[in-house]
Amino acid sequence: MASAYLEFIRIRFLTMLAYRVNYYSGIVIYSLNIGVYYFLWKAIYGDASQLGGFSAAQITTYVAVSWMARSFYFNNLDREIANEIRDGSVAIQMIRPYSYLLVKFMQGFGEGLFRLVMFMLPGLVVVMLLFPLDLPKEPWRWAVFFLMILFSFLINSQINLLTGMIAFWLENNQGVISFKRVMVDLFSGVVLPISFFPGWARTVLEWLPFQAIAYLPGSAFTGTLSGSEVVFAIGIQAVWSVALILPIMLMWRAARRRMFVQGG
Amino acid sequence: MPAIEVERLRKTFKVPVHRESLRGAIMDLFLRRHKEIVAVKDISFRIPEGEICGYIGENGAGKSTTIKMLAGILVPTSGRVEVAGYVPWRDREAFVRRIGVVFGQRSQLWWDIGVIESFRLLRKVYRVEEADFRRRLDELTETLQLGELLHRPVRKLSLGQRMRCELAAALLHNPSILFLDEPTIGLDIVVKTQIREFLKKLNREHGTTILLTTHDLQDIEALCSRVIMLDEGQIIYDGSLQELKERWSRGREVRFRFSEPVEPSGLAALTNGLPVRWTAADEESARLWVPREIQVADVLARLVGALPIQDMSFKETGTDEIVRAIYQSGSASVPAAGTAADAPVPAAAAAGNASVSGKAAGDVSSPGEEAAKDASGPAAAAVGDARPVKAKGAPASAGAAAGDVPEDAAGQEEAGEETPGKKKRTEAQVRG
After folding, report:
1. Is the C-alpha dihedral spanning B396, B398, B401, B406 positive or negative?
2. CA gap A168, A177 in Å, rounded
3. What is the pTM for the complete model shown?
4. Nearest to B125 among A96, A259, A261 (CB)
5. Between chains, do A261 and B99 touch, taking CB under 8 Å as contact?
């Protein structure tokens, strides 16, 4: 059975490859984003050597790396699930001897792998040439970073599964999906590192799963977290990945009873 | 052990009721009202292994909802389902290995990849051994003539080609039970015939139990030993097709062509005293309707010799007509006082069979009886040539509702569960 799930990763990867032209425009958009934030942060720092625990060199690296990581963990599972519920094709998924959510997750992973190989890694090389980045010298930080963005993918996808399943209750959950997307981008620390938020907001955000998606791996990579803090950060990610399984399962069970199939 | 066992199965859907006007829309934002729609009402049946059973009914009768509960897609609201020894929704992942499902209106193949790649993926999903898969695929490729289709992407197949591939996809894991939801919809006659032959062969050689819904009664005639008919979520007939025909067939029509002109008024005199009815078209031809209880030979004995008959043909009531009459009488079985006057013909259509309605009442929820009461004498007599034209009260609203209501439930909503008297779904014309 495991081989079937792996097969879904492979097929999604190949499908993405077939439509790879879509991604050339993505590369431009990501580079633009990184460029804009790079100059914005440079302007904000001015002569200041350190803000919010980040040096100027660290923040630009943080921005570039966070955006590249985003290309890996980002996916549209929520939209895919909502669409399948809305057009009724979820019925086809239910006649197959597999877990629907796990298959969706695997497809998301296939997409993530495609973006990692075809987009993030080459993109990182391009970004390194364009902007003077301060990349860590220690190999362990690199290793930790890849482990941590794996968790980022996990947590982000879990949140997407939850958001997508709301379509079982709402006729149209596009609004919820857009809202979630903005929330993730804002509160995960892609746009603004958590340490820049005011104290009370930081306390709130530290209790939410979003910071585990971008802020923690970005901070670990740029070196604002010490060795023991990195271990703690990985621990937080692991806890969230496990903790989110329960609401997903509860929601799925409720959804099964609620399920209706649109269009016959 | 029966392959499928269903007991007092019920499914209700909750659908939001939208208020009208801007004010209503704003109120909807804060307080949504819901309405319960009963798509399937406490139905029970058993299907033994190896049977091909047709499941028919109008749109919105609850056919698809039943199939979806049997296939483990939907969770029943109440009642018991057991298919191949499993409770479908509870043991879904283990259960669906034992069944195959084809939805005529939905593809289960992956749109972007080749047919053979879809099959290979299904092999892994269903954990079919490579050797078994090969054998099965070869067999299906041969009987369904998939040969040159296998390497094309699904999106480039015609509907007929795709349907054959869908069937193969549903059978790769050799299921013992096959559910088909409108498998021949939109197909041309050649493909339809091919698929029917294939299903017969499958049933004969592998003993596969098949439950199919269809609107094409030729599917039923070609395949099914048994028919279950559904109306508004309830079973109104369960039995053999032959019996259905015998009970509901109103009679037969004899068509005459004359070699020389015949005075129409003279025809009635010839059959004086027999409960038959002439519908003379013109002087050169005429049609005679003979109810089931009269021997055609008795009638002909009076006519042959007396009339210059050049040619003569018989027409049995087709399944189409029978089923149409039942659908209509099924809804005419709960009329309020006013309905009979509005729609005398559905009543009349059933009235032709009034004599058997007592017998039928066991299986059929007594539409005949009710209908017979409503049918006035002349209407009943006119039945031979009645051409019931079905015009649903509000098909447009049903269509509009289907956008946000599950299709099966849409009809129900429109019919308005609690006010059957208001139903104004049938209208008919009487000719002759």
Report:
1. negative
2. 13
3. 0.75
4. A96
5. no
